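Continuing the series of single-chain predictions for the mutant panel. This is the parent chain; the variants come on the following pages.
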Amino acid sequence: MVAIDRDYRESWVATDRHAGHDVWTCNENDGQIHGTIVGVHLESCIGCMKCQDVCPVDVFIAFEYDNSAVVDPVREKTCIFCLACEVACPTEAIAVQSSMGSDDTLNALLG
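Parent structure:
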């Protein structure tokens, strides 16, 4: 399992829209990332729903993708950049857009 490419907003291409957010692709083998503010790499998501459990603003909903349960950031515009979802994700399938030091906050929490 591969973690999300945290630079996908610069190196991938928004090729579609789904439930009000962008769908990003790089090449066929890299899969899809849903969302821009909150990105979820669908191939890395194991559907544990931990992000959904910890998100204080209900960004995520359960979604079926390629016959598997995953999460979809359908309410990404409500994100408050707390990074709880990134910390809770066991497969590093989520990347919240850097805002107001969010990368520094995440590094402090994980470090």
